Amino acid sequence: MSFSDQVRAYQDRIETVLAGWLPESATDPTTLHEAMRYAVLGGGKRIRPILVYAAGNAFSIPETGLDAPACAVEMIHAYSLIHDDLPAMDNDDLRRGKPTCHRAFDEATAILAGDALQALAFEVLATDPALTVNAPTRVRMINILAAASGSRGMAGGQAIDLAAVGHNLSVAQLETMHVHKTGALIRASVQLGALCHTGLADTEFECLTQYAHCIGLAFQIKDDILDVEVDTETLGKPQGSDMAQNKPTYPKLLGLDGAKQAAQRMRDAALDALHGFGPAADGLRWIADYIVTRGK
What we know:
Layout: H1 3-21, H2 30-40, H3 47-57, H4 67-84, E1 94-95, E2 98-99, H5 101-104, H6 107-127, H7 135-149, H8 154-164, H9 171-181, H10 183-195, H11 202-229, H12 232-235, H13 241-244, H14 250-273, H15 282-293
Antiparallel strand pairs: 1-2
């Protein structure tokens, strides 16, 4: 099986896992549970859970032992998208080619759906019996995901993003913003997958963290490029929304060609970080290539 085929298998798997953990729409409070399922299921590239599976696969971890962290990171990601789309944040009407959660339901329901998904992510990571790591490792995984989600991670990056609208940032400042906003959860995804390996060495963890840092930046640079080059129908969200909101972006600071070169440099650095890993890490290498070549 090629890794592109494996990716589709991972996407199908995480859809099933997510559907199993999410409360059924018929369960009270029905509207809230319907909104949670609406926001999570049936769309998205699933990059973060795929990274969990690929990192675990580098150490031959069975997929059943990776389902919990894969599910948890995608729930955190979905919650962040719901809140990012709100009128008080990015005020977007489309996400993954369909109305955003607050448009499909209402703002209050969308806020609660995001809150509930965040809580459910930690419940999954704390209680899934198929996650066979010892208790200290499980606590470490919960801590990593919490830090990646909070003010020192994703939420902090969004705060920096909101404060940056209409202001000029340096490339270093823009990188700091995205290391938090986008990169933190991508790093956590790789780290959680790796920590499912009970014999993980500190040097292996550090190399994988560096890999994840680089692909996190490459992912955001490519997102900024796609916002300029790709139409709304293909993107599944409004084209040019960053420009319309006068947000700092890599193409704005570096030019389109400069941004493409920066993405390629990050991809190359990610591959360099995997130098000590054998063919079992080829899935991670494939993802690094995919991130800078994807069309949406």
